[in-house]
């Protein structure tokens, strides 16, 4: 299903607020692009191979959400690109100048566009003018046709269609210094804190309207990518996605369950490199004209409201410990 044209200008009532609006693209390397294509095809993404690059898309959406390249060794996050409105680009650049944030050379896998800076955790960050790919309203449920009386509501297994995520929801990163990372996202990119549990896990949203988090961080010994989250149409699609990955041979994961912070229903499918892709439905939304009151929550409320036991290695950072 095609989406409406993406917004390219900020709302007038946010004229004085300058910050990125979307996680425009993620880029990481993996040891085997063919295996990456198999995993993400099974997950329901559209994979497009271009030489030594694998691009990830969702059905009917114009955005290229991320790119993977092949490189020896562990999976590794290379850089993140954040999109901003044209009206915000120069104010963000001026803020970097005031803060004394030095620009860096473009990443070898990136392009020369926009502004390049170094995240304090060591990876590159690009800021570019781009259409707003984060949502402008809370994602609604998939509307399904009513079922006639006397007919079962569930399809039989042979007729269940493949789950195909609608868009990227967020990325959760590992960080060795969560407080330092928070300040980077606030001061440099203009993101705002949504919720946290001390420095165990932190969630941040965009100032022009976004899901409860477009970036999240978890405490670790080093940087890395824990998971990519993908929006689907209902909790049935979350469960069907789990079954879809089982059928494809990807049987390690976590869920189905429901988070407390963000409130979304989830299933995490573990990829071949020890990180995850999440089917997510019904995450909380922070409008651009609303000041979300961030909370610091106890650990027991930072993870999930219900679901199966968490796998022992779910928060292991395999980028620094090996797959």
Automatic annotation (TrEMBL):
Residue span, VOC domain: 22-130, 167-282
InterPro entries, per database record: Glyas_Bleomycin-R_OHBP_Dase, Glyas_Fos-R_dOase_dom, GlyoxalaseI/FosfomycinResist, VOC_core
Record's protein name: VOC family protein
Stored PROSITE patterns: VOC (PS51819)
A Pfam family matched in the record: Glyoxalase
Domain of life of the source: Bacteria
């Amino acid at each position: 299903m095609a989406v409406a044209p993406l917004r390219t200008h900020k709302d007038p009532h946010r004229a004085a607020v300058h910050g990125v609006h979307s996680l425009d693209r993620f880029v990481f390397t993996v040891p085997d692009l063919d295996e990456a294509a198999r995993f993400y095809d099974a997950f329901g993404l559209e994979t497009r191979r271009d030489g030594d690059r694998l691009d990830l898309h969702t059905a009917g959406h114009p955005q290229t959400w991320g790119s993977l390249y092949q490189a020896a060794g562990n999976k590794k996050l290379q850089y993140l690109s954040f999109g901003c409105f044209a009206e915000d680009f120069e104010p963000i650049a001026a803020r970097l100048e005031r803060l004394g944030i030095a620009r860096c050379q473009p990443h070898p896998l990136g392009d020369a566009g926009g502004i390049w800076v170094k995240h304090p955790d060591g990876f590159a960050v690009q800021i570019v003018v781009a259409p707003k790919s984060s949502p402008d309203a809370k994602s609604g449920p998939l509307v399904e046709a009513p079922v006639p009386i006397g007919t079962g509501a569930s399809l039989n297994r042979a007729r269940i269609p493949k789950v195909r995520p609608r868009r990227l929801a967020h990325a959760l990163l590992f960080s060795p210094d969560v407080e330092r990372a928070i300040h980077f996202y606030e001061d440099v990119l203009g993101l705002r804190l949504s919720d946290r549990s001390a420095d165990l896990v932190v969630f941040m949203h965009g100032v022009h309207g976004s899901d409860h988090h477009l970036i999240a961080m978890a405490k670790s010994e080093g940087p890395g990518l824990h998971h990519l989250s993908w929006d689907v149409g209902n909790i049935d699609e979350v469960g069907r996605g789990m079954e879809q990955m089982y059928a494809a041979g990807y049987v390690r994961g976590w869920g189905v369950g429901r988070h407390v912070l963000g409130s979304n229903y989830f299933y995490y499918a573990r990829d071949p490199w020890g990180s995850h892709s999440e089917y997510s439905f019904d995450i909380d939304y922070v409008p651009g004209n609303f000041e979300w009151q961030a909370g610091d929550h106890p650990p027991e409320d930072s993870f999930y409201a219900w679901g199966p036991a968490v796998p022992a290695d779910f928060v292991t950072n395999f980028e620094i410990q090996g797959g």
